[in-house]
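Example S7 (structure tokens).
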């Protein structure tokens, strides 16, 4: 179902769950009965330049960033746990239920919570998976062990190890409010954010060194040309646009 084209109201009824699209564009799951097919899965996915909000049947709210997907059972609960699988980036406000832990699985880790707010960045083209806790507490499990994360901390998973750092959470969840936070962000990380949102390809000239940092904030509602002009004003790089390809030159 292409949700951007669907009218408000009932989208589907399956596995004892009613799935509706609200007037403000959210996808809402509500339990209706027992249902039979507990193994059925739904996937909510976004394209470049799209975000979407989801309300699961337990009351958990999810904001899905651009070019991301979230997979889950319509009734959410499987084997006594609330389980979802994420590719890309999402912000979660998890409804409290101590009897049923909420599990977010990505390619390299599993995040376990009881009720909290956190952000997971697990894009396949990023070298690390970053999990940032806004409030509550979470436990990250990998093949090599478990790590507890506290509010204001970010767990950076390289696939080989995890390190915990302090961070400004509003700078991580800025996308949820329609902004790019680019201040003291690795330049190529910033450009990947821009490429995903505007659906463009980035090509770097050999003159562009590693280790550059971008700066500033800018709204994602701005046209691409204005975003690039803002970055050029720093004097670090300049851009040349050919179709949907952006060439970056020192």
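Recovered sequence:
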């Amino acid at each position: 179902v292409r949700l951007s084209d669907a009218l408000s109201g009932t989208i589907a009824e399956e596995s004892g769950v009613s799935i509706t699209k609200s007037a403000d564009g959210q996808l809402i799951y509500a339990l209706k009965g027992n249902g039979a097919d507990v193994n059925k899965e739904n996937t909510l996915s976004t394209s470049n330049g799209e975000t979407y909000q989801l309300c699961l049947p337990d009351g958990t709210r999810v904001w899905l960033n651009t070019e991301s997907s979230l997979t889950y059972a319509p009734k959410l609960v499987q084997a006594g746990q609330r389980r979802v699988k994420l590719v890309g980036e999402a912000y979660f406000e998890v409804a409290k239920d101590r009897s049923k832990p909420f599990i977010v699985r990505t390619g390299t880790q599993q995040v376990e919570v009881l009720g909290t707010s956190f952000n997971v960045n697990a894009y396949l083209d990023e070298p690390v998976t970053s999990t940032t806790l806004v409030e509550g507490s979470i436990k990250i499990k990998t093949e090599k062990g478990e790590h507890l994360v506290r509010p204001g901390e970010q767990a950076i998973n390289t696939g080989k190890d995890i390190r915990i750092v302090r961070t400004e959470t509003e700078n991580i969840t800025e996308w949820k409010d329609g902004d790019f936070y680019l201040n003291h962000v690795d330049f190529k990380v910033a450009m990947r954010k821009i490429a995903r949102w505007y659906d463009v390809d980035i090509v770097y000239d050999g003159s562009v060194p590693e280790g550059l940092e971008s700066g500033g904030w800018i709204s994602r509602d701005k046209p691409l040309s204005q975003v690039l002009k803002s970055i050029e004003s720093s004097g670090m790089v300049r851009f040349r646009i050919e179709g949907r390809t952006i060439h970056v030159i020192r």
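Notes on this example. The mean pLDDT is 92.
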